[in-house]
Design goal:
heterodimer; A: alpha/beta; Rossmann fold; Alpha-Beta Plaits; 6-stranded mixed beta sheet; 4-stranded antiparallel beta sheet; 13 helices; 24% strand; B: mainly alpha; 11 helices
């Protein structure tokens, strides 16, 4: 099945011009308070059409509240938001006609079968009987649910439910898709299917705002990343830009013997031994000059190196550096709790 | 922008969903059907003899079941509404409802679907109660037109109680809370003309029983079903039903549209 079958393609007028794309999602000064808890605190967002924005932040940072405001579920206390060119507060139906939402908790009817759930969405999207049925079959296959189509959803695994959830979201071919922690607690296979579909959607011109606690996911899928904490933007940019804000990348040296490793460790202050016992990790600038400096010192001390590799900082490090926070975000206990 | 063009199709879609649930989990319908039938058998078979003896002046030659059945019908409608309130409250906790709120559908269709299902269950339950009552000797001289009018009034009552139940279901935070609220219309008929005429009650209770909505509704149903006099009770019954239906509808819509609670 082609990308087109899933996405239906919605090329915007500026589709071929990444510099001058229209904004699919636009928010300025969003604020939302629950009691004495300020969930969203003056948030600004811009998502050009056909791009993916990843909203990253720890639990309770305001990601879900933001998605709920942008998807017309919640009115902000202050600020302005437009989705698909329509004001979220004044034209909610026009916004709803353009969006699809897959929330954190599966938005499916557990008492119906997978096929019936999709039929419900087809009917509410007014697709017509034959077209709706056909598209349901298409989506069931694409999401690897064809075999379970006529089983009640209550018997589905977590991963199957999440896939059905996204399939239901895509039934009406939304131009803008909100994915609130779409892969939290998912098995690797379901995660891969989801990532692949996100890529296909984007290829078809769909705009995606996804929230995640997995920095790797943002790194892989997003054109731009917005880090939020306590409801406010901490940093925004492409994954590469954010990584560049950290002073150093890393250079890893591999040695054939313990002796040379020990000698090298004496030369490079602050180098960390890796778990395998034969590698050193140096914090170093990922520039030619930085690399040359390392090579010069290796040669000057006559250290035999078995291998060398360079890596950029990952988003986990960026996140900790920018929030000054050591709360677990990526693979910590918070996720384990959520996954249950 | 309201999508009036989708009023009917979205409501029909949501009603189909409710029916599919009912078919898949028939216990709710069956227990809603059995309870009033048992009540009918209980009040007629166990208390009927004593009650009839005390009500000779009112009943004349009629059997007690002829007096009792309209009241049980009303309680059956209230019983179905109770299940609807619990159903709706449970449903609102489901993720699917959050999804429906983000879709460009006719918003009340989510509630209309449940009311439609509730109304169908009410009519089904009413028919079963009436069938058992006829078996127990319910005496009727009603014309076809009167039967039709009775069915119409009963449907109107079902509509009113269903909307009220939807509002209860939205108001309560838990299914148990929804159940408690729905017990009000279920127990109110005890202090009405359902089992004994208000005239046979002590003064204070009598005033309440004579003026509460279920009394004219039951009196009108009784008149229509037995073929007896209806009098002014019919107008009062219709007015009460329309009033409750309208109030329940507006209340439910307002509750459905209120901003949802905080989320993480």
């Amino acid at each position: 099945m082609s990308d087109q079958a899933i996405t239906g393609r919605h090329p915007g007028p500026d589709g071929g011009n990444p510099g001058g794309r229209r904004l699919a999602i636009e928010a300025a000064g969003l604020r939302k308070r629950f009691g004495d808890h300020l969930a969203v605190d003056g948030l600004d967002l811009e998502v050009p059409e056909g791009t993916v924005l990843a909203l990253i932040g720890p639990n309770g940072s305001g990601k879900t509240t933001t998605v709920r405001i942008l998807s017309t579920l919640l009115a902000p206390d202050a600020g302005r938001a437009a989705v698909a060119g329509h004001d979220v507060g004044r034209e909610p139906d026009a916004v709803r006609a353009a969006i699809g939402v897959t929330g954190q908790f599966s938005a499916i009817d557990r008492l119906l079968t997978g096929r019936e759930n999709l039929a419900l969405m087809a009917d509410l999207n007014h697709l017509g009987r034959a077209a709706g049925r056909e598209r349901a079959v298409e989506l069931l296959e694409r999401f690897e649910l064809a075999g379970a189509a006529d089983r009640q959803v209550i018997t589905y695994s977590g991963g199957m439910r999440r896939r059905l959830d996204l399939a239901m979201t895509l039934m009406g071919r939304p131009r803008i898709v909100f994915l609130d922690e779409p892969t939290t607690g998912l098995d690797p296979r379901s995660r891969r299917v989801l990532w692949q579909i996100v890529r296909e959607l984007v290829a078809g011109g769909v705009t995606i705002l996804l929230t995640t606690q997995y920095l790797e996911e943002a790194d892989r899928l997003a054109d731009r990343v917005a880090l939020i904490d306590h409801g406010a933007l901490v940093a925004a940019g492409t994954p590469a830009e954010l990584k560049a804000r950290l002073p150093a990348g890393r250079i890893q040296l591999r040695f054939a013997e313990e002796d040379s490793l020990a000698a090298a460790a004496a030369v490079f202050d602050g180098a960390a031994r890796a778990d395998d016992g034969l590698s050193l990790t140096l914090a170093a600038e990922g520039t030619v000059a930085g690399l040359r400096d390392v090579l010069d010192r290796l040669e000057g001390h006559d250290l035999p190196v078995a291998g060398l590799s360079m890596s950029e900082p990952d988003l986990d490090e960026v996140f900790f550096a920018l929030t000054g926070d050591d709360r677990p975000t990526g693979r910590g206990t918070a996720d384990l709790e959520k996954a249950r | 922008m309201t999508r009036t063009s989708h009023v009917l199709s979205d409501s029909a879609t949501m009603a189909r969903r409710d029916l599919r649930h009912a078919v898949r989990f028939p216990m709710i319908t069956i227990s809603g059907l059995l309870t009033p039938v048992i009540m009918l058998l209980l009040f007629d078979g166990v208390f009927g003899h004593a009650l009839r003896a005390g009500l000779l002046s009112t009943l004349g030659g009629a059997s007690y079941v002829s007096y009792l059945a309209p009241g049980i019908l009303v309680m059956a409608a209230a019983g179905v509404a109770e299940a609807t309130a619990i159903n709706l409250n449970t449903d609102m906790g489901e993720g699917i409802i959050a999804r429906l709120r983000t879709m460009a559908i006719w918003r009340p269709s989510v509630l209309v679907g449940q009311v439609t299902g509730s109304l169908l269950r009410t009519m089904l339950t009413g028919a079963a109660v009436l069938a058992v009552a006829l078996g127990l000797g319910f005496a009727t001289h009603a014309t076809a037109l009167a039967w039709l009018a009775a069915a119409g009034l009963f449907a109107l009552l079902g509509l009113a109680l269903s909307w009220l139940a939807v509002a209860f279901g939205l108001l309560a935070k838990t299914p148990a809370g929804a159940n408690s609220l729905a017990l009000i219309p279920l127990f109110l008929p005890f202090v009405s003309s359902a089992f004994v005429p208000p005239a046979a009650m002590p003064a204070g209770v009598r005033a309440f029983a004579a003026h509460q909505p279920f009394t004219p509704i039951i009196d009108a149903l009784r008149g229509l079903l037995t073929g007896g006099p209806v009098g002014s009770s019919a107008i009062a019954a219709v007015a009460w039903c329309i009033g409750i239906a309208l109030a329940g509808y507006l209340w439910a819509i307002a509750l459905y549209n209120r901003p949802p609670a905080a989320a993480g």
